[in-house]
Amino acid sequence: MCGRFALYSPPPKLSESLRLPLVERELRPRYNVAPSTFITAVRRVDDDAPLVMDDLWWGYRPHWAQGTAPQPINAKVESVATSRYFRAAFAHHRCLVPADGWFEWLPVNGRKQPHYLTRADGEPLWLAGIWAERADGKAGCAILTEPARGVAKEIHDRMPLALDAQSLEPWLDPHLTDRETLRQVVHHLEAGLMTHWPVSTRVNRPTQDDASLVEPISS
Pfam families in the record, alphabetically (predicted)? Predict the structure, then answer.
């Protein structure tokens, strides 16, 4: 799953990594991004609009859903294209969530030890997401997850769907709506690029937000 992540790369670095024309905005570093907050995402508001860094609520509930409907923060790649709740967004409202890494918790001797998972080369991650307009008129999103691969399997059985560089443009292409076509042109990041290390349990508290949260500790 993906329930907590960090984003501290500055917008120019994100633009360089994305390799697409992007309307930037100022961002403050965040080292403990939690659900039910606004998060940074790259999207087109409509098909002809430029790509922008936008604030999306991390909690997906389409405007047609009832007020008691769930607000998932994740959507499984296995069912996102066919689920009634997600399929329209998968076809028409895809986005990318930039992250420098994410946190997962590994059970160790009766306690849960947080680990930080990130690219070994320090480059940003681009997590596949979907968004929908909520009943309150704001946009909410969910991050796609897939079965864990590579070193991520040591920590959790699922992981966010991080895309490789060649997949970013087609993922954001509003004219690609067919599930099978997307499968052919969108690929996850090579698992061998990832690494992880244990971090402070301070990350358990969403109110904590500083650079030390992503620094390794002795497990």
Answer: SRAP (PF02586)
